[in-house]
Amino acid sequence: MPTRSFTSPQLALAVVVGLVPSMRGLAADPAPQPAQQPAPQPASQPAPQPATDPATPPAPAAGQAPKREPLPPITWSDAEIEKIAKMLTGSWKSSMPVPEGGNPSESVEVGMFIAPVRVRDMTDMLYVESARMDSVQAPYRQGFFQIFRFRDGLRLRTFELARRSGGAMVGMWTNPDLFPSVERADLVATMDIDLKPDGDGFSGKSPAPYATSLNGAVEMTSELSLRPDRIITADRGFNAKGEIVWGAKADATYEYQRIEAPVKTWTSPNGVFVIEYGRGDAPKVAVIDDIITVHYLGFLSNGFRFDSSVDRVPPNPLTFLVTEKQVIVGFVDALLGSNVGTIRRAYIPHEKAYGEFGNQRVRIPPFADLYFDFEVMKLETPVGPRPAIPAAPSQSPRLIDEMTNPQSASPQPASPQPANPEPASPEPASPPPAPR
Fold first, then answer.
1. Active site residue 148
2. Is 372 a catalytic residue?
3. Are strands 273-278 and 343-348 parallel, antiparallel or unpaired?
């Protein structure tokens, strides 16, 4: 699949600030390890710590679909907490390109995307995603903010994912009502910043240095200034001698400016929610009965990646007809109107996925809502009789019916390897650092 070519040995910190260009970043491509700390950004989260093999969610009682209860509204504990949350919510972009790797002449624009979400047994929570602006579909960091009263002031606490993958969460800042279920036990607190009113916004800093082992530092600090149209931050890492070894020097800061969301979203009549990150230049768009070839990733709501075309050796895209006669309705809705080069993510409710049967072959339980990423590689209008779709020679036969029609799937489940990235060592949360 076409992706940008990165060759610098200092390009990315795997997982922690790993670059994920195109959909390969959500696959299992290992990232090189840099020797230096990337430039810091606003108080966000360190990289998630994906579970190595999240358990498949328990299935409902046979034949019983889970009830879709109306979601409660997202509310805030008081007016001042609500003010901070609303100021943070939205899409943000670095005011100037951030140096990438060891060469300061190579820079990238970095985005941060924040939205309120529901977290079981916690209040006043926001989800935070950071990504290169040219790869918004592939965030290099995911985490959470919580705003709460502390003594006589306000505190912002950052969290990272402790025991699960964030794969299903990607892009769901665009629609918090479809955000996967998260609870307190899934998160670990990493950094506090005490906030006080400051003019038309809020500002503050970490109450004390926090322990870290990142790139030669033994402790770190963070500062934050929040305004209606910008976020300014300064993170610093210190060695055992108290010397700054990474981050903002002296009075240097990093600034983000508020922008319009860089994606398009819509919901199909069948309830399939689609996020479009980008399109190609080809004039032809997908219509019913076209032949389409896509790379894809598939996630359960708990973050388990049950299948991925890019994790195969060699990567093996899937070719099928855009019709409900051959694939699940959710695939059709997610891909209609796309062209070669289109990158989309789709939330597919179980009613338009594998329904009450699930798909035992790839460990999809009954009544499972799914999250899919797609990149369109090829698109053709069939000529003459409807073509057969052969199995790829690079793998054992994998029939479309077997993937999309639960009744025709093999009763013996395979043991797909979860394609989650390697876990990284936890670090104190700081604003999402820029990619290296």
1. no
2. yes
3. antiparallel
